[in-house]
Specification:
mainly alpha
Length: 256
């Protein structure tokens, strides 16, 4: 029914807002309810939004194997198939990370390229900022560190220009992670301090999870396990408030 379809879309929107604030458990519950409400005569887009939202939450909760079936039969859309409205929300833009985490790396990379082309075609800098911010993490995990840093830099600038400062904080936190892996201590600490400071001013404390983890990785690489432990303990405290268990989002958790 129309009412059920509206309820599904409302739950999908609420799920996205919850996850952005670290509400892994509440976001998962909303996505599960959205899938429960699906009916066969609903638009395909509505069904995809609900199922892919649930897949993302399952991945974040450390249940990637359960997430994979929600992408069964999925194929990467062409640029022509992507409408402007597809770029206005996180549903499609967040899909590359979910695909990467369920082992479909090639599909993830292909979708990123298609979405970047669509953002240029639609002159959608806000969507591009969100996409680049999210794919910074994707490229980090694929070892494309130079590409990840370039994406983080552009995402931060576009985020500020389009009124999405949280993208800038997150992107700089991801840049700190890359620089930690490279052993670039000065710029890692600069990125982490800026991201954490700006996020704290605006009440977005979740960024400290990522910056503290990056600083812990840096200190491990520099041979100081005591300093690393302090940073990783801080990251773990923030992780506990979010229920995140995805090893790609919180890589330190597996070694807790």
């Amino acid at each position: 029914s129309v009412d059920r379809a509206r309820a599904v879309r409302a739950l999908v929107d609420a799920h996205a807002a919850a996850v952005a604030r670290g509400g892994t458990r509440s976001g998962l519950a909303m996505a599960e309810r959205a899938v429960e409400l699906l009916e066969e005569d609903m638009p395909a887009r509505t069904g995809d939004e609900a199922r892919h939202s649930l897949a993302m939450s399952l991945v974040l909760a450390g249940r990637a194997r359960e997430a994979a079936p929600y992408f069964d039969g999925w194929r990467c859309p062409s640029v022509e198939e992507i409408a402007a409205e597809d770029l206005r929300g996180p549903r499609l833009i967040s899909a590359p990370l979910t695909l990467q985490r369920i082992g479909r790396t090639s599909d993830a990379g292909q979708l990123v390229d298609v979405l970047l082309t669509a953002c240029r075609r639609e002159s959608a800098p806000g969507a591009k900022a969100l996409l680049l911010g999210m794919t910074t993490e994707l490229w980090w995990w694929e070892g494309q560190w130079s590409r990840a840093l370039a994406a983080a830099t552009e995402a931060a600038v576009l985020g500020e220009q389009t009124g999405q400062p949280a993208i800038g904080w997150y992107s700089r936190a991801m840049a700190a992670r890359v620089r930690a892996g490279q052993g670039d201590a000065q710029r890692c600490r600069e990125d982490a301090a800026w991201a954490q400071g700006e996020a704290r001013v605006h009440g977005f404390e979740l960024v400290a999870l990522y910056t503290s983890a990056a600083l812990g990785l840096l200190e491990l690489g520099l041979g100081d396990p005591v300093a690393a432990s302090a940073h990783l303990a801080t990251a773990e405290r923030f992780r506990q408030t979010t229920d995140l268990a995805d090893p790609t989002a919180v890589p330190f958790w597996a070694n807790r």
